[in-house]
């Protein structure tokens, strides 16, 4: 019985390190790809939000990317450990699909949060620079109902 448990543990250990390596590789590549995409396309929103100040927009954009990396890579490393040690190739795919699914969901939430923040900043900038409303041509007087 102990020999059977030892063999199962060794098989699980044999598959665990490659699972971790694949998970880290894919998670890091996905995080870098999303960060570069946000950095490139978020610049337009930030330039508008900062009234055309490209230097400030680029600086904030860089800081947002650094924060994005810290949060996502921190999360990836926090959830690295798995309770289910894969014993075969099929279980490696099951563990990886679960872990990568969580990473993709976190990246998606971060992406939509960034879009929300950028859009709010852009709307505020447009509102602040909009011309004042036009004064009415005439005054409308309402007579009391009898």
The helix/strand order is: HHH
Mean pLDDT, all residues: 81
Uncertain regions spanning at least 5 consecutive residues: none
What overall geometry do the principal axes of the alpha carbons give? elongated
Q: What fraction, in percent, of the residue positions are helical?
A: over 70%
The computed structural class is mainly alpha
Number of strands: 0
Please give the count of helices. Answer: 3
Radius of gyration: 26 Å
Sheet of most strands:
none
Strand content: under 5%
Calculate the terminal CA-CA distance, rounded to whole Å: 98 Å
Keywords:
146 residues, mainly alpha
Word description of this protein:
With 146 residues, this protein is mainly alpha-helical. It has a domain at 29-123. It is built from 3 helices and no strands. Helix 1 packs antiparallel against helix 2 (54-78), helix 1 runs parallel beside helix 3 (89-129) and helix 2 packs antiparallel against helix 3 (89-129).
Summarize the structure.
This protein has helices at residues 2-49, 54-78, 89-129.
List the helices and strands and how they pair.
Layout: H1 2-49, H2 54-78, H3 89-129
Helix pairs in contact: 1-2, 1-3, 2-3
